[in-house]
Specification:
Nucleotidyltransferase, domain 5; 49% helix; DNA-binding
Length: 216
DNA sequence: TGCCAGGCCCTCTTTAGGGCCTT
């Protein structure tokens, strides 16, 4: 099964369009349910971190000032991912920062397909909304408690959150297998399922695998 | 922690508004 990269950013705020920048990135590389690689680094993007975000993440201005430049870290992160499809919790957030930070790198160098091709993101929050209507809350921490996922360390640090999101993804894949007999849940199937209504999932799964067979 | 953003989803909806989730 091809690898999937589960990613999490810590940032100075909610929107790259508002000038917010990444302060930390972590990536957990999964093959099936097996972790085959981890990447984590603080990064210095030259932005001050507001006190309430320092408290929220535990990442201080001093820590970021001592970190390598954001461009170097993102270059290393892109090489680590090697074009693998990406997964995140509330992926629209991490997708914005992934693309924004990489654009800053590729804008200074010869364009590289790894950086210029927007990867497709699967979202563990959207999938959880469809699969676990009884969960109540779809915050990462709440879903970790709901499923009794292994503790990964301090919440709101990138590697801990990426580890929890990876565990959640494995749980989602396991439940898809149990409920819908999906032996493996490829990334593009996850992307399709996160867009369809719960009652339409069996039909979407069947259509997906019929499509694969027709193209074989 | 939330006023700032943006996407998704629900409903007292669809010619809209508000809550959730991410930092």
């Amino acid at each position: 099964m091809p690898p999937i990269a589960v990613i999490d950013f810590e940032t100075t705020g909610l929107s790259p369009a508002a000038g917010h920048r990444a302060t930390e990135i972590a990536i957990v590389l999964l093959e099936g349910s097996r972790v085959v690689g981890r990447f984590q680094s603080l990064m210095n993007a030259g932005r001050r971190i507001a006190p309430f975000i320092e408290e929220y993440t535990g990442i201080t201005n001093e820590m970021v000032q001592a970190a390598p430049p954001a461009a170097d870290v993102m270059t290393e992160a892109a090489r680590f991912v090697q074009g693998a499809p990406l997964v995140a919790h509330n992926a629209s957030f991490d997708q914005q920062f992934w693309q924004s930070e990489l654009r800053r790198v590729s804008g200074r160098k010869r364009p590289d397909p790894v950086w210029t091709s927007p990867p497709s993101f699967a979202c563990t929050m959207l999938l959880s909304r469809r699969l676990y209507p009884q969960a109540g809350s779809y915050r990462l921490g709440a879903l970790a408690s709901f499923h009794a996922l292994p503790d990964a360390g301090r919440a709101h640090r990138a590697l801990a959150d990426a580890e929890v999101a990876a565990s959640l993804l494995c749980r989602i894949r396991g439940d898809l297998q149990e409920r819908y007999q999906v032996d493996e849940a490829p990334h593009d199937l996850l992307v399709q399922l996160q867009r369809c209504q719960r009652r339409s999932m069996p039909k979407a799964i069947a259509a997906y695998f019929e499509g694969l067979r027709d193209h074989a």
